[in-house]
TrEMBL record:
GO terms for biological process: proteolysis. PANTHER family: DIPEPTIDYL PEPTIDASE 9, PROTEASE FAMILY S9B,C DIPEPTIDYL-PEPTIDASE IV-RELATED. Pfam families: Peptidase_S9. Gene3D superfamilies: alpha/beta hydrolase, TolB, C-terminal domain. This is S9 family peptidase. GO terms for molecular function: dipeptidyl-peptidase activity; serine-type peptidase activity. InterPro entries: 6-blade_b-propeller_TolB-like, AB_hydrolase_fold, Peptidase_S9_cat, Serine_Prot_S9B/DPPIV. It comes from the Bacteria. Residues 742-916 form the Peptidase S9 prolyl oligopeptidase catalytic domain.
Length: 943
């Protein structure tokens, strides 16, 4: 009886458990089924983290959340993630140096500004910015309206300086008062010409000092000094340069001139003890401006003239565009000299001026490049030094060697100068900017040519003992000893160049970590490890052991003011596992050569940002599923705290997952790629799939893809949420056959996924832009595997594209085909068949895939006539195709309304072909020119 009773209860208990499980499962499934599907309107509710910062003492973290690319919401939290302060529509936040205050700009709501523009509100009546000052000590907020801009000192605290915009006076209704005012002299108005009122505010006491009609100002980096120029109290006042001593509040006028004078490049030394500026006091309309360079040092009554038109080196004049700076030890002032400007005959009438472009076959720069660089050429200056102890002037850069580099914060006795001009003509087809290099003695100006025809950028070591860099022609890191005049090839015959280089060009390097103290060693990267090289004899040591495990180690510079890497301390390194794409942090003890992994996992970790005076660091980690919220920890990374929670709404949406997939190319290469699946993926179902790729992307497996109106590519989260698979395969290229290489890598990747059983082989699409757009244009001439394709800014005709111009830079496109991304490896007359075989235009009749093409008429990368060639050829053949041109937009649509429109049309296009959704009106009948900007044709056609 007892046994039977127990059996009864056992059965009942089991039934109840099963029933409960079914109920919970139903609730879970139902709850999951109720998750939202991402739509275009959801882009507007997603936040992006902007301007993250950690205070100097590491106690506070500040950041802004920008929602839908509109308003920013500023937040300040402590190291425990407790919210201390927040303010909506605020940005441009920063801590002052002692971490006692946070400053930020309060803006008007962007929607309200949009509505005011719609109502045609005048510019002067639009809302002005407000400066917000939050005190951590008193927990109080001070708001100062009508602030144009503000600055705080870099390495000291106590004050803020801000420009006020013009504040309109209320009109008086008292006619007597109005009459009195009318008899008075007109008040000088603030403007960019007259200057604005500058307020210097003590952040603790709130005491303010207003400086009138200030045209320029800046703080010294370390010394408590502020320099400013003013046009004077009224129209008859002289202009002047003044130095304000923040410690005692005294302002000293150190230069005065007529009120039409113009001042340039106002600059204090870091200590605040020296000041340099350029002034033009001439009141005539002379086309060649007689600029003068002045210098002032603390203790002097007035600034002293250093260089003018009479004392400048022959053939040069003082530049108003060249940067002024000081050596850290205050012994030298650097400034710019310029050659005389080319002036036009002002007596000529407009109809008398001949406007003709004369292009010459052997001039160094192509005319289109010259045309875009006219303003730069007009502002070109040549770095020069004045030794402040004896006022000796030494010209460093000249027309022979126009580019100069300093080191050791300007203290070094040498400078490195270079010249590209002998090699500019050939850069048209090589894409390389080779240079000659010389060393200049800063004290005497004597020069010594040290390197010739070097294809990569060279630089000086921190203390100026070596010229150092990567010589691409030799795939070798080079150290040139300045004292001994000897060159040493440090890595000759060894693999310190890009091992995966697959273009017909010299392989690049992996870079350097930096130098150790007193230039004793340089730390060079190979593909995986950090090596320590002696620049004198080339002896070297491998410091990390990454190659064996295919793990890459890289040095993290935690101190932005770091002059050298301390080889007796501990370093923080990042790690990246090439096999599984995991990343993390590693501690390396440079003294004993030992190390330990601090953190690693299936995430992408950012480079940490350390507080200046604390071991606290902020960083992010991310994956496809996890948004990169800000975290705080110390350098042990044993514990971290999540500071931000930017997008909690993500949990409400059907998201997706990312995984690494592998297959073998038709060439026999082992390949990797990313596969994105919907969150509710069921392996027993079949899904439509979009193939999106460029070159190699699998290293980004753990990067988050927030919903946004992208400018050129599908949004992975968006399409995964809507039930699509996304496949992003890596592509490896063979010289001369880029199209075939893409086919050999991409197509077997697709078929390997189809074989898994969950891809709907009849509903596969593809999408890509620029180089990706070209590859898609090529693929659809070779296969019918795609049901639909979007090809953005493609090149269907490599022959005509070879002769094109990249209009943003004015550069010829020849180098791209001969040596870089297009990978043909030569000219059309050397390899005509390669150009034909790789050009989709010659096989366009083989295309059976409906195509959406987007190519904009202001494209500065790929000439938009390439997209037109593609479209009109498809149109000629009656192939289903559509062409989108966003007027006045560049290589990608940048304006928000255009990006949203592009994303909607692309989704409608793929939904129609891959999901059987109704056609939109624009696909059925287009949008006639008479309706452009009025009717978009986005409505779906009902059956």
């Amino acid at each position: 009886m007892l046994v039977a009773l127990l059996k009864f209860y056992e059965i009942k208990t089991t039934q109840m458990k099963q029933a409960l499980y079914i109920i919970l499962l139903f609730i879970g499934v139902n709850s999951f089924a109720q998750k939202k599907i991402l739509d275009h309107k959801d882009f507007d509710i997603w936040n992006t983290i902007k301007n993250q910062a950690i205070s100097v003492d590491g106690k506070y973290i500040m950041y802004s959340l920008e929602k839908g690319e509109k308003d920013n919401h500023l937040k300040i939290k402590d190291a425990n993630a407790s919210l201390l302060f927040e303010y909506e529509r605020s940005e441009n936040g920063r801590f002052n140096y002692n971490s006692n205050h946070a400053l930020f700009t309060i803006k008007a709501w962007k929607d309200s500004v949009t509505e005011m523009k719609r109502r045609k509100v005048k510019k002067d009546d639009m809302p002005k910015d407000t400066l917000g000052i939050y005190s951590f000590k008193t927990k109080s907020l001070t708001k100062i309206p009508n602030v144009k801009s503000y600055k705080t000192p870099t390495k000291w605290s106590g004050v803020v300086a801000y420009y006020l915009t013009d504040i309109k006076q209320e009109k008086s209704t008292d006619t007597t008062e109005a009459k009195k005012k009318s008899t008075k002299k007109k008040t000088k108005k603030v403007s960019s010409k007259n200057g604005f009122h500058l307020v210097v505010r003590d952040l603790v006491s709130g005491k303010e000092d207003t400086l009138k009609y200030v045209t320029d100002f800046s703080f010294a980096k370390e010394g408590k000094r502020l320099v400013y120029t003013t046009t004077g109290e009224d129209e008859k006042s002289n202009s002047s340069v003044n130095v304000l001593n923040i410690e005692n509040g005294n302002s000293t006028q150190i230069f005065e001139a007529n009120n039409k004078s113009k001042y340039y490049k106002l600059q204090l030394s870091d200590s605040g003890k020296n000041l340099g500026f350029v002034v033009d006091t001439d009141t005539t309309k002379a086309l060649v401006r007689p600029n003068k360079l002045y210098h002032w040092t603390e203790g002097q009554t007035n600034a002293l003239l250093i260089v003018d038109a009479d004392s400048a080196p022959k053939g040069y004049r003082v530049s108003s565009d060249g940067t002024i700076s000081f050596s850290q030890d205050d012994s030298k002032m650097y400034f710019g000299l310029a050659t005389p400007p080319i002036v036009q005959d002002t007596t000529l009438l407009k109809e008398e001026i001949v406007n003709v472009e004369v292009w010459t076959y052997d001039e160094p720069r192509l005319y289109t490049v010259q045309e875009l660089q006219v303003k730069n050429d007009q502002k070109k200056s040549y770095q020069t030094v004045v030794h402040l102890n004896n006022k000796k002037l030494v010209q460093l850069a000249t027309t022979e060697y126009p580019n100069a580099r300093l080191t050791d914060k300007g203290n070094a006795p040498v400078a490195l100068v270079s010249n590209q001009e002998p090699y500019l003509l050939e850069s048209q087809w090589t894409g390389r900017r080779n240079s000659d290099y010389a060393i200049i003695d800063v004290a005497t100006g004597t020069s010594n040519k040290v390197l010739t025809n070097v294809s990569s950028s060279m630089s000086l070591s921190p203390k100026g003992n070596y010229v150092f860099g990567y010589h691409a022609q030799d795939t070798t890191w080079v150290a040139y000893n300045i004292a001994t005049n000897k060159r040493l090839d440090l890595t000759k015959g060894r693999v310190f160049y890009n091992e995966l280089n697959d273009s017909p060009n010299y392989p690049g390097s992996y870079g350097v970590a930096g130098w150790t103290k007193n230039d004793s060693a340089v730390l060079i990267y190979d593909r995986y490890d950090i090596w320590k090289f002696n620049p004198n004899d080339g002896s070297n040591t491998r410091l990390t052991k990454g190659r064996e495990q295919k793990v890459t180690y890289r040095y993290v510079r935690l101190n932005p003011d770091e002059d050298y890497i301390d080889d007796s301390g501990k370093w923080l390194l990042t790690t990246f596992d090439e096999k599984n794409k995991h990343s993390g942090y590693y501690e390396y003890n440079a003294k004993n050569g030992k190390g330990k992994q601090l953190l690693t996992g299936p995430y992408s970790y950012s480079r940490p940002r350390k507080a200046r005076l604390s071991n606290n660091v902020i960083f992010t980690r991310q994956s496809f599923e996890e948004f990169p919220d800000i975290r705080i920890s110390n350098l042990s990374f044993k514990k971290d705290k999540i500071i931000s929670n930017a997008n909690p709404q993500q949990s409400e949406y059907n998201w997706g997952t990312a995984e690494l997939v592998e297959w073998t190319s038709l060439d026999g290469l082992k390949l990797q790629g990313m596969l994105i699946k919907p969150e509710d993926f069921d392996p027993n179902k079949k899904y439509p799939m979009i193939v999106n790729f460029y070159e190699k992307s699998s290293n980004g497996l753990f990067r988050h893809k927030a919903p946004s109106a992208g400018r050129s590519t599908i949004n992975y989260s968006f399409y995964a949420s809507r039930g699509y698979l996304i496949f992003n395969p890596d592509v490896y290229y063979r010289e001369g056959y880029p199209g075939e290489s893409a086919f050999n890598c991409v197509i077997p990747g697709i078929t390997s996924l189809v074989e898994k059983g969950f891809v709907d082989k009849d509903n596969i699409g593809t999408q890509g832009h620029s180089w990706g757009g070209y590859q898609i244009a090529y693929l659809v001439t070779k296969t019918d595997i795609f049901k639909a394709a979007e090809s953005g800014a493609p090149v269907p005709n490599m022959i005509s594209a070879y002769g094109g111009i990249r209009w943003w830079t004015g550069l010829s496109r020849q180098f791209q085909y001969e040596h870089t991304q297009s990978r043909i490896g030569g000219t059309p007359w050397e390899y005509p068949q390669r150009y034909v075989e790789n050009s989709p235009i010659f096989n366009i009749d083989k295309i059976n895939t409906p195509l959406l093409i987007m190519h904009n008429d202001a494209d500065g990368h790929v000439p938009w006539y390439q997209g037109i060639e593609f479209f009109v050829s498809l149109r000629r053949l009656g192939k289903p195709s559509w062409f989108l041109n966003y007027n006045d937009e560049p290589h990608w649509p940048l304006k928000m309304q255009n990006r949203k429109d592009f994303n909607i049309r692309m989704q409608q296009f793929f939904d129609h072909y891959l999901k059987g959704a109704p056609k939109p009106v624009w696909m059925e009948r287009g949008v006639p020119a008479i309706e452009k900007g009025i009717n978009q044709g986005l409505e779906l056609i009902k059956n």
